[in-house]
Structures are given as C-alpha cells and as structure tokens.
Amino acid sequence: MKIKGFDKDLKCRGFQFEIGKTYDTGAADDEITLCSDTVFHYCDSLEQVHKYYSCLKPNCNRYCEIAVLGREITDGEKCGSNKIKIIREIVGDELA
C-alpha cells in the first residue's frame, strides 16, 4: 500500500488535495526527482510516513492510501510520482 501524509486540512506543501481526485505535476517521466515539485511524495508504510507527518499529535495530520499512476522513483524510504490518485483516508485502528 502506498500512503501519503497531509496536514489536518488535507494539504501537503501548501497544495490542497481531495479524496477521489487524480493529480499530475505535469513533469515528464524523465524529468522527475525527489524533493522537488516534479513529484508528489508518499511512502510504502505508515511507519515511514510518520517520520514526516507525526501521529503523536491528535487531529494534526491525516493519511491516505494512494494509487501511483505515473512513473515512481524512490530513495528507499520515501517515494514520488508525477501522477497519483487519492483513494481513501486511513482512519481508526488502521493508523496503529
């Protein structure tokens, strides 16, 4: 499962997301790099996401399952793609 973290308003780096929508950075597959605006960042596990979006402060962050629709790049810990779809919010016992 691919998981993306957000603030409480479902924003990441100032960009507003919505569940069910698809997002594309507009970058070509051969132009994407991590830690840039050419990709949307996410992780392979909640544990990895919690390094960037803490679960220790209730109601401060939200987490969603995503589908990767573009090219994926990774450094082994975080991943990025130029096209993703927000599938659903992860809540309750799934956050443990």
In words, what does this structure look like?
The chain has 96 residues and is mainly β. The chain is built from 1 helix and 9 strands. It has one helix spanning 46-49, and strands at residues 2-7, 11-12, 15-16, 22-24, 40-42, 61-68, 72-74, 79-81, 83-90. It has a 4-stranded antiparallel β-sheet with strand order 1-6-9-4, with no helix packed on it. The protein has a 3-stranded antiparallel β-sheet with strand order 5-8-7, with no helix packed on it. β2 and β3 (15-16) form a beta hairpin. The protein starts with a strand and ends in a 6-residue tail after the last strand. The model has no long low-confidence stretch (mean pLDDT 93).
Features:
single chain, 96 residues, mainly beta, four-stranded antiparallel beta sheet, 40% strand
